């Protein structure tokens, strides 16, 4: 709810698989949490992934308990329950609308600025919306219908 912890552009030509995802969790996300949210690693992490194979692979799910990160369940086939999909990406798109980019670096910098321009209230709203969507899904027998 306090904003983005890690913004990690995937290098061109990189295959996103379970091993890559595990490496990002270990080498990028964990240190970013330690730096940006001191004490959070010790107090416990609730971790939300969708059900994409790269997120549900054993290499990834086995490392989460090692770090004492609790994986929240995510209903199948419900991408509209991920705050990035229904909140962060649409807001970023709005900030980037109409711009043209010449290089990959231009895109990276523009997305960095777009993320920085999102205020804290925006994240609080996203998580309140997420809780309402999760509740709706639970009340609907595990199915989410918008």
Automatic annotation (TrEMBL):
Q: Name one GO molecular function term.
A: nucleic acid binding
Q: Which Pfam families match?
A: DDE_3
InterPro entries in the record: RNaseH_sf (IPR036397), Tc1-like_DDE_dom (IPR038717), Transposase-MT_Hybrid (IPR052709)
Q: Which domain of life is it from?
A: Eukaryota
Q: Which residues form the Tc1-like transposase DDE domain?
A: 15-107
Could you tell me what this protein is called? Mariner Mos1 transposase
Recorded source organism is Elysia marginata
